[in-house]
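Thread: Newbie trying to understand structure tokens

Hi all, I'm a second-year student working on a class project, and my supervisor (Dr. K.) asked me to get a predicted structure for one chain before our next meeting. I've only ever worked with sequences, so writing a 3D structure as a token string is new to me. If someone could post the tokens and maybe explain what I'm looking at, I'd be very grateful. Here's the chain:
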Amino acid sequence: MSNAVFEPASLAGIKLKNRIIRSATHEGMADEKGFPTEKLKKLYIRLAKGGAGAIITGYAAVQANGKSSLFAMTMIDNDDSIPEYREITNAVHEYDTPIIMQIAHCGRQTRSETTGLQPVAPSAIRDMFYNEEIPKELSEDEINGIIDNFVAAIVRVKQAGFDGVQLNLAHGHLLAGFLSSHANRRKDRWGGSTGNKYRIIGEIFKRAKKRVGDYPVLVKLNAHDGRKNGMKTEEAIRIAEMLEKSGCAAIEVSCGVVEDGLYTARGKKLPADAALEYTFKYKNLPGFIKTISKPVLRAFMKQPKPLLKFNLDSAVLIKKAVNIPVIVVGGINNIDDINFIIGNQNIDFVSMCRPFIIEPNIVSKFHKGIQTKSKCIMCNYCVIIGEEKPLRCYYGKLP
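---
Reply by user tm_fold:
Sure, no problem. This is what the structure looks like when written as tokens:
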């Protein structure tokens, strides 16, 4: 076993007990204002007690029209939430575990039914999953307002005692949409070239630095997706270089957008029964249609391959191009792969999502040699049912 995995490490000045991070995972444990609940605090305490090197929270929205359509998303758009978030950071720090808040704007990947507002995007292009409404193309003033709201959120995150903040530039949300030629068809200074598409992120870094100095700002970056004109690793490498110049503290490498289906959270078979019961697109279909749909969904929605370590190749290429820490997520579920990634591939940290849902103490189990592999069966019921219920493991069965 590689000692490097379980040795103390530093991530942009943040001290970690080991190199295994809990990746941002939507928890669905906020109240009606988007403030964190006691249930969410208890989840983070379990993760801290369970040995996670660091915790990255589920995404928190920086403004009202950027809220997800998923159940009970946290918000960081109001100073009144700071004391309640501080309770969480204080509780987690008792276990010498750093906690980083991920912040986001969901862009066109939300619904007016949830937010009460029309979705917005770089360009007025309908999302193939959220295909009920065409998003509004953002004006120059609105883009500047979003930049300022990201910066205000970063200030709140720091005031709440988080060890750092992570910008969500992945999975088809607003900032990822700006970076993608699939979603961004603009002809002005916010679209076209990679530099123009990156401009909104560069501005967030520039304005944040004036407010919070060297406070660690990390990113989660898509290295590739399944869209024809979407993100490709070659462009992601150029963006990674720009991020380093902007003062980014670390890059977590991920992939996929919602339109791709379960490209980001892969499994052996499509959880069709969960999708038909809990996804807004399908749950109100008549019963007989659902019965016919199940085999059709499974036949036509092919799961992408490989199932494991599917962002590693991109992460290795990105790591070669930058000097800042690189974290890799995606299909990492056993200690042998973690040792290989850290010990042989020059990647600084690994992060996991689903293994922590079934076993919040998975890192402790790995460290003590109690087990070498996660008990997660990659059924993805947690991903689908999270549209309507708080986070938990369903182990391939409908509740």
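A couple of things are worth pointing out once you decode it. The CA atoms of residues 62 and 99 lie 18 Å apart. The longest strand covers residues 99-104. Feel free to ask follow-ups in this thread.
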